[in-house]
Fold:
Amino acid sequence: MLDVIRLSKSFPLAKPRRSKRAPVPARDPREDGRTFHAVRDVSFAAPAGAIVGLLGPNGAGKTTLLRVLSTALRPSSGTASFDGTDIVKDPLAVRRTLGFLSGNTGLYGRLTPREMLTYFGRLHGVGDEALRARIDDLVELMGMRDFLDRRNDTLSAGMKQKVSIARTLVHDPSIVVFDEPTTGLDVAAAETILRLVERCRDQGKTVLLSTHHMHEVARVCDHVVIIHQGELRFTGTVAEMQQAGGSEALDLALLTIVGEVTDA
Amino acid sequence: MRSGAFTVFRKELLEVSRDRRTLFFMIAMPLLLIPLLIQITTDFMIDAEEEAASATLDYAIFGGEALPELGPAFGQTPGFSAVELGSPDEIAAAVADDRIDLALVVVPPEQEGGQHVVELHYNNAPLSSKVEPRTQEVLDGLGRDLRRARLDALGVRDVSLQQGVAEPVVMVPRGTAPMREVLGERIGGMLPYMFIIFCFLGAMYPAIDLAAGEKERGTLETLLLVPIPRYQVVLGKFGVVFIAGVVAALLTLVGLGGWLAFRGSELGGDIGAVMSAIGPVDLVLIAAMLVPTAAIFASLLLAISIYAKSFKEAQSYIAPLNMLVVLPAFLSMLPGVELDWKTASIPIANISLAIKELIKGTMDYSMMVAILGSSTLLAAALLWAATWWFGRESVLFRQ
Structure:
């Protein structure tokens, strides 16, 4: 169970973008002097055993929000908790229960998948015996036996994606965050990811999925959270999103909700 | 429970040991390439010296009638060959065109029996030129013969008396410094310079790979989400970069020592004697000086590298740092720069000068303890700063 409570994240801007002489361009409403409010006052909940889709246009603040929830960044204000564990007060405990997979996550090229899984398993405090068993399970599940001891930099894109997935799950997290995990993947690799997302839900994990692909939302998401310009614009089920957006087509519904649809 | 820092260290060590570029800078270059380069350079220098010493020198003489013995003196000396030249005005052009190696212009004495001045015209630019000493040798012989003949004519026939008349006072220098100190002063500055440079180079690629490389590969974010404090991540990475620097410096020591042991005699027997005078305690102390050096480099390089977004950007930041390392290390090679409390306060320069003192066998051990202590403190402060730096969001997620 994930509870996000009035979460905000701001960054200092390197220099003010306004000039006294030049004509003032349309400013991003998230800029405030020398501060950029990437995420503002966002609250929502994600229940266990459900997939929550995090939607929004590019630059909406989704990645920043996920980085804060995963404890890579500290919130400027507000907080969130995973199964009651606060991300600000005890980030290490949160990380023990969290799996994070992003579309641009890389691998250590000079390590083998086995070495990489062992490394992350140990860093998550998994004991040697349990780790061996866990790696065996994941290898069978993902069909990684043939390339388990080959160096990562010799693997195909699909094989690398499998290694990334196994790395995400090696410590059996109860909450899994996917940040645009299918970006740049072919149909087969994307299907592998979606099956994994569904499998996580079936195992009772809390799943947060950030994506631009509405067919993925339609297929796997139970709930939807829409972010635009750092603010929460909608939270509800997929059916409620269609209703709020006035369209069966999720992409049109999304654009209506964020105010970017034009009457053609 | 296994330490997170040790897990990171072990993984980074495994990865670095599979990186050819790191292995080249850490092992192959100090151990093989440096001795090879020194051997090639030495061979080249020796060949150039031998060639300069044995090559036939073409010469022309002007005003020889004022000193008739000059022509025969050169004509009878092997390695000299007379060349006809029209006039003294052609000398510079003839030397430049390699038609002659030297020209001698005799300025006659103002009165009978006075001193002849012989001007030597030659190309004095090449460092390896032997024209001046070889000509001086012939002229010295001629001068001795003429002096003997003139003293004979004056009735001074006894050889020792002749020497007393010609040079009533002669200075014979007798240095009291041991040969180790003398040669240590001359070549001792080069060795710490090389140790320090290779220590830096050995640590450089692992540092870039372990920090900026993580960002470039997209693995940093995953690493930041593991449930260990970030200082443990830094410590694990620091350990590997530090070891790479120490190994590179020690292998430079081994490579140079090995070369000097086997081939150093080619530079003159004294160098071999100096090297053998450096005992195991000195070697351990030299190695001890390199430990905080490697720690300083590892902390600095990691801090710079984690700021960079890519391998290439890290290299561009580290290039100026290279100069900051080279200049203080170079101080030990400058004549007149000695280790004192003032130079002992300059980081890196103090290490370089202290190693030179150890090679010379003239180390003030109280100063060495102070340098080791201050360098270790500096390394600890830099490691703390690198850890703090590593925890900053603006560094880790720099746009």
Notes: The longest helix of chain A spans residues 187-202. Chain A touches chain B at residues 11-12, 67, 70-74, 92-93, 95-96, 98, 100, 102, 104-111, 115, 119-120, 122-125, 151, 167 (CB under 8 Å). Chain A has a mean pLDDT of 89.
